[in-house]
Amino acid sequence: MIALKNSTLSRKVNSYALLLIMTVIAAGMLIPFLLVIINAFKTPAEYAAAGPLSLPKSLYLGGIIEFWKRVSFEKSLLNSFVISFSVSVIALILSCLNAFVLGIGKIKGRAVLLVLFIIANTLPQEALAYPLYYMAKLFKIYDTQLVVILIFSVIQSAFGTYLLSSVYSRFPVEIIEAARVDGCSKFEMLIYIILPNSKASLSVLFTFFFIWTWNEFFLPLIMLVSKAKQTVPIAVSITQGQHNMDVTMASASAMLGIIPCIIFFVIFQRTLTRGVTAGSVK
Q1: pLDDT (tens digit, 9 = 90+) per residue, 88-101?
Q2: Longest pairwise C-alpha distance within the chain
Q3: How far is it, in rounded angstroms, from Cα 249 to Cα 122?
Q4: Which of 30, 112, 144, 181 has the highest CB neighbour number within 10 Å of its CB?
């Protein structure tokens, strides 16, 4: 009885200790965001006089307004949304088709193809910039949203193919064989059987694809040179000059750049939770 009580007490202590550690880690991660929000509402004079850790005396919106006008932020938001949403849809379709062939069809050389997808997903973007730039020039799609959509659809689908193929390879063989006996074609099997039973994984992938593409900076910076076609991360970087920087406006731009991702994450939080939970249960 005493041993049981000690075991229960030990589990409670471990749980509280783990909770305390996670709280400290979460607080450490939130501090930079809090500093950005605080400094976004300061005047340049307040920042120069009291530094970055002081609270603003009033809600100064000049930095936000100035940044919004300077970069036409509403256009950047629309560009990022169009590109991210298009990439998420196209990459998800490509991932499903590739994974169906590799996971359900289990073609010859499947392992080699999966290794190639992994390698393609790990290639640094700096190594891809040179050939992609000249290919965009060759096909006359440079400085268009289309070139960024095509590039990241392929890049994201490499990861999606690897993930979904591992999910589809564990799909119950009995269901697949029953569908074949009933005369179900491969396309019908994909649409009516495979996809409905993998909604959780697909929703998680869609969310990740959207957030990853939204935060991309390097390749869009190279491919999109017109101000009217630039995305949010590029618009945020404009506030940083070579020799000087308006810290309050830079904080305002960072805050505006973070808010859409937070909103998107909050909206799809349950989707992510269901997807991760379903994956762990399976």
Answers
A1: 999 999 999 999 98
A2: 78
A3: 35
A4: 144
Closest by CA to 207, choosing from 158, 264, 129, is: 264
| Full DSSP string of 149-213 | HHHHHHHHHHHHHHHHHHHHTTS-HHHHHHHHHTT--HHHHIIIIITGGGHHHHHHHHHHHHHHH
Confidence class of residue 76 from pLDDT cuts 50, 70 and 90? very high
Q: How far apart are CA 103 and CA 240, in angstroms?
A: 47
Rounded CA-CA distance 87/156 in Å is: 8
Give me the number of domains the chain comprises.
Answer: 1
Q: The domain containing residue 145 runs over which residues?
A: 74-238
The predicted model scores a pTM of: 0.85
Helix axes 199-214, 247-267, angle to 10 degrees: 170
Burial of 67 (0-12, 13-18, 19+ CB in 10 A): buried
More confident residue, 267 or 196: 196
How close are the terminal C-alpha atoms of the chain, in Å?
37
Q: Please give the radius of gyration of the chain, using alpha carbons only, rounded to the nearest integer.
A: 24
Q: What are phi and psi of 240, to 5 degrees?
A: -100, 110
**CB-CB contact of 238 with 71 (8 Å):** yes
* Domain-embedded: residue 265: no
Any domain includes 246: no
